[in-house]
Amino acid sequence: MATSKVAVVTGSNKGIGFAIVKALCQKYDGIVYLTARDESRGKAAVAELNKQNLKPEFHQLDITCKKSIAKFADFIKTKHGGLDVLVNNAAIAYKNAATEPFSEQAEVTVAVNYFALVDVCEALFPLLRPHARVVHISSSAGHLLRIPSTKLQERFKDPSLTVEKLSELMREFVKSAAKGDNMEQGWGQSAYAVSKVGVTALTRVQQRQFDTDPRPGITVNAVHPGYVSTDMSSHKGPLTIEQGADAPVHMALWPVEESAPRGQYVWNDRRIVSWTDPLD
Fold first, then answer.
1. What is the C-alpha to C-alpha distance for residues 277 and 280, in angstroms, rounded to an integer?
2. Among 14, 82, 17, which residue's Cα sits nearest to residue 48?
3. What Rg value do the Cα atoms of the chain yield, rounded?
4. What is the dihedral of CA 273, 192, 186, 226, to 10 degrees?
5. How far apart are CA 214 and CA 224, in angstroms?
6. Are 219 and 232 in contact, with CB atoms under 8 Å apart?
7. pLDDT exceeds cutoff 90 at 97
8. Quick check: 102 and 188 in contact, CB under 8 A?
9. What is the pLDDT of residues 76-96, one digit of tens each?
10. How do residues 214-233 score in pLDDT, each as one tens digit?
11. What's the CA angle centered on 68, arms 85 and 62, to 5 degrees?
12. What average pLDDT does this structure show over 110-121?
């Protein structure tokens, strides 16, 4: 069993995830796994980086498939015995012109962006080594004030919130969207925003868990990468994927010997911002 340092980036065959893998290959003293649900696209992405003399490894990973997650976790455990960097990048967003009913958009968006991320964490967190760095790609849409209801806000920022209670909150939103009363109940009208608020809230909950973990120094932070020109943004964002990767990579490579941010909401310029107060 090899004992090299290991980094994993989910959903990384294109866009910000691809740029994160590229930067880690350039800066990280360890093995970097580019993962994608589509094997051919993943291997094509690896081949593209190989042309730049970068050497990521590839492994198939569909975060919406528990069997795929379990297979990947078993592979990492068997081959490497542990994991040092995990960047949860994989996500979806419906276009503004999407014709699917909002109830469907809510169910699918939350399933991928929140519940699938939770599944990945449950499978890979036991493999994290001391001082591991976990980065969840959130969004400016993941700010708490994107939820209009102050009562819901209070539930999201409850210091005793657990993963189970947070997941129930996310299910409540999906049910509300199905009923069509999501506006009346104070959820707003953006499934993407609710899903990313869930991701940012999850970051805080998980850090509290890591703070009592026998493995020292594990940190998890949520990062807003900025408005980046990707397929997800229909290439309307002004930032390059390399610029979008900067803050996530910065957090992923925070030195072990330095006191790292813990459970924070980090902006694309590397600033730690308040998740609960109005943005400047």
1. 9
2. 14
3. 18
4. 20
5. 29
6. no
7. no
8. no
9. 999 999 999 999 999 999 988
10. 999 999 999 999 876 566 65
11. 75
12. 98
Four-point Cα dihedral 184, 186, 190, 194, nearest 10: -140
Residue 175 predicted with pLDDT over 70: yes
Beta bridge partners of 7: 32, 85
| 3-class DSSP state of 18 | helix
Q: Which residue stretches of the chain are H helix?
A: 15-27, 39-50, 66-80, 102-110, 116-124, 150-156, 163-179, 191-210, 241-252
What single DSSP character describes residue 86? E
Token reading at 240: 């390059």
CA 95, CA 30: separation in Å to the nearest integer?
Answer: 37
- Residues labelled catalytic: 192
Distance CA 21, CA 102 (A): 33
Q: Would you say the C-alpha torsion 9, 164, 142, 192 has a positive or negative sign?
A: positive
The residues facing 6 across adjacent strands are 31
What is the 3-state composition of the chain as percent helix, strand, coil, each rounded to the nearest 5? Answer: 45, 15, 40
CB 11 within 8 A of CB 63: yes
Token couple for 189 = 């009208």
Q: Is the pLDDT of residue 235 over 80?
A: no
Nearest 5°: the CA angle 234, 238, 241 is 75
